[in-house]
């Protein structure tokens, strides 16, 4: 029987080689898978919103409802031109304003309201419907525009 003699120096060299190989793989391994597409923000970002309505009935038979912007929270890139399209689905009309700006308008049922926006200051801006601003007026119909 033949016994393979491996000198101690070689064993150290082999271990070092394996460690180097694993270390290299760890450093160069891809963190994200490349795809053919590109993120939405690489072109002008268009954000689509609709008006919705929640309806329910209390045990005593009383109807309660709340109108909503949907989605209720959106992220907007800071100092980038974005288009906000709001389609009126529920509710006859929703006159609105964006707090802290001079942006205002009305979303009408069956129609699309298009806003071209660019926020020069980061923060949370509230899109408030004047008709349905709180619980006592079938709201609060408020969306949060997070500019970051
Ligand atoms: Cu409203």
From TrEMBL:
Ranges annotated as spanning the membrane: 10-28
First and last residue of the signal peptide: none
Name the record gives this protein: Cupredoxin domain-containing protein
Gene3D superfamilies in the record: Cupredoxins - blue copper proteins
Statement: the UniProt record of this protein carries the keyword Transmembrane: yes
Assigned keywords, A-Z: Membrane, Transmembrane, Transmembrane helix
InterPro entries reported for this sequence: Cupredoxin, EfeO_Cupredoxin
EfeO-type cupredoxin-like domain boundaries: 67-136
Pfam families reported for this sequence: Cupredoxin_1
Record has Transmembrane as a keyword: yes
């Amino acid at each position: 029987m033949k016994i393979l003699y491996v000198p101690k120096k070689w064993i150290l060299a082999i271990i070092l080689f394996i460690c180097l190989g694993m270390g290299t793989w760890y450093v160069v391994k891809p963190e994200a898978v490349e795809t053919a597409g590109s993120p939405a923000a690489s072109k002008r970002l268009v954000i689509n919103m609709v008006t919705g309505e929640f309806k329910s009935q209390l045990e005593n038979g009383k109807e309660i409802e709340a109108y909503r912007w949907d989605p209720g929270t959106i992220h907007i890139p800071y100092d980038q031109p974005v288009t906000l399209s709001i389609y009126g689905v529920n509710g006859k009309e929703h006159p609105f304003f964006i707090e802290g700006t001079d942006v205002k308008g009305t979303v009408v049922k069956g129609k699309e309201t298009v806003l071209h926006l660019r926020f020069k200051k980061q923060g949370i801006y509230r899109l408030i419907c004047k008709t349905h601003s709180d619980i006592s007026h079938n709201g609060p119909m408020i969306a949060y525009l997070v500019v970051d």
